[in-house]
Amino acid sequence: MFNSTTGDLTWSVCTAGYEVVEGGEEKNVPDAHLGTNFFRSEMQQAYLLKRGVVRAKGLETKEYVPSSEADGLARQLAAMFQYENPIVQSPTDDQILAFSNRFGLLVPGKKMYVRDIVLTCKYLHLFAEAIDRGDKIKAREVFNDAVVPGMTVRVVGSKSGRLTANWKLEVEPVNLIALAWLQIAAELTTGRAMKKCNAPDCLEWFSDRSNKRFCNNRCKMAFHRQYSKDLQSI
Ligand SMILES: [Zn+2]
Fold first, then answer.
1. Ligand 1: distance of its center to the CA of 40 in Å?
2. Given Cys at both, which of 92, 97, 208, 214 links 220, Cβ 3.0 to 4.6 Å?
3. Is the peptide bond before 30 cis (omega within 30 degrees of 0)?
4. Rounded to the nearest whole angstrom, what is the distance from the C-alpha of residue 206 to the centroid of ligand 1?
5. H or E segment and range at residue 63
């Protein structure tokens, strides 16, 4: 939910978690605005619809501010998609639920089609892949041709609210799909790459500054425990 006073996108996560249910049981599931116009075949769409709906298990929610608390969101979504698995199975339901339990659904509301999460992961993956192989021209082409994220535009003056000569326009995403696209496009515009945490089983990503290798101390310790175990087994 976008807060027009602060200019922040605040997002809700259901505290009871999420579940995947069959699409047939669910009425009034909205089609998510994917913010992309990549080609989607009818057959693929129909297949993906069979994967059902992700639904909040309760009404109670907690809030967070994704722009400051979910740095690696786009990269996490991109990394959930894998070509080795046929598209109908990647990302898996478990991956989708782990993501949703942490960050919430990608669009406002209590439910969304698994299909729309899968497609978002796939498109972000294609874009991330172009960046990672150094093909920034291709990445820019993909973005400009096919990406139209849901945005709002604000006029921003000074932070204090006092009159200033420096007025500017600022774009703000209105959902997590748009936020993810802005995040990953910023890797091109700021030239700041993202890096995955080195710890085994950690899915966290962060911006690649200095020689940071782990998202926190717990991950650092997990890595070194694994490392010394590996050494012993040689
Ligand atoms: Zn980590």
1. 34
2. 214
3. no
4. 9
5. strand 61-64
Q: Mind listing the pLDDT tens digit of every residue in the chain (234 residues)?
A: 777 777 789 999 999 999 999 988 788 899 998 999 888 889 888 889 999 999 999 999 999 999 889 989 999 999 999 877 665 688 999 999 999 999 999 999 999 999 999 999 999 999 999 999 999 999 999 899 999 988 888 888 776 667 777 888 888 899 999 999 999 999 988 888 888 888 878 888 888 776 888 888 889 998 888 888 888 877
Whole-model pTM: value is 0.88
Q: What region does 69 belong to: left with phi over 0, alpha with psi -120 to 50, or beta?
A: alpha
Q: Cα(220)–Cα(42) distance, rounded to whole angstroms?
A: 45
Q: Which tokens go with 95? A: 């991956």
How far is the centre of ligand 1, averaged over its atoms, from the C-alpha of 93 (Å)? 22
Cα 99 to averaged position of ligand 1 atoms, centre (Å): 15
> Which CATH architecture describes the domain 2-192?
Orthogonal Bundle (1.10)
Q: How far is the CA of 234 from the centre of ligand 1 (A)?
A: 25
